[in-house]
């Protein structure tokens, strides 16, 4: 028999074995699905959520490359290429929007991101369980307030007409400050609102990471003479470093996504020059003026910047020995 005949006979002999192995793998997979049946059932709502609200709307980005007319419809609207992007980049307001969005996003990243870590470390150091639970409850509560409520509380506290803060300033002999109309106070107020509302909720992940730190590491550090501060610096923080890096990367992915509600509720005619961002610009031009294709291009640009940031941050994290997100 020739070599070709031997190879053909060997291949023919392997085919039934490969078919049997595929059947065996399929049976094992079906058996595993039957064993974890309810887990897959519980997975269905999450999958449907992402398919309906995340993946299907992706077709809407095609509006950025069309001159969409509601009466003509999506399919009948003509393609215009990068016309809307060129219009946006040459618009005089582009520089203002990018500067305002970038500054507020950078302030949020610099001042808000470390706060949940610090609060989680402080809560982790508490030894009285009852006081710890009470403190956690109080710092979690603001997360469940809507931004309308937060803006209302801010107005009540800072207004010059009977606001608690201004009344205290006047009572101390100072002049009332118009925080709500001031350009210099707009961005700090946005950051402070974010810290008050979301810092407590952000501690949940870090507290979960802290609960997984091996207690024997603290015992070894105490034997070596490390005080509480050195234990935190050399044991606690290195143990949760990967969690911090992953959350930082995810945060950079939403770097320019500041949230429409908070900024819109705090905007007025006096602070618009420092508070107008991409999200509010999209609302005023897309919803109020009906420029759907143009504002879709603006939103796509915003999302593209976030994608570039998350990819760059992930590569930098891997270069420094961290796992990264992907």
Query: In terms of per-residue confidence, which ranges show pLDDT below 50 for 5 or more consecutive residues?
Result: none
Total tally of structural domains: 1
Helix-strand pattern: HHHHHHHHHHHHHHHH
Q: Tell me the structural class.
A: mainly alpha
Walk me through this protein's architecture.
The structure is a single chain. The chain contains 16 helices and no strands. It is flat. The chain has one domain: MetI-like (MetI-like fold). The chain is mainly α. The model has no long low-confidence stretch (mean pLDDT 86).
Topology summary:
Layout: H1 3-35, H2 37-55, H3 83-90, H4 93-112, H5 114-125, H6 129-140, H7 147-158, H8 164-171, H9 183-211, H10 215-223, H11 228-239, H12 241-253, H13 260-266, H14 272-275, H15 278-288, H16 292-319
Give a summary of the structure in a few sentences:
The protein is mainly alpha-helical and 326 residues long. It has helices at 3-35, 37-55, 83-90, 93-112, 114-125, 129-140, 147-158, 164-171, 183-211, 215-223, 228-239, 241-253, 260-266, 272-275, 278-288, 292-319.
Q: What keywords describe this structure?
A:
single chain; mainly alpha; 326 residues; MetI-like fold; flat
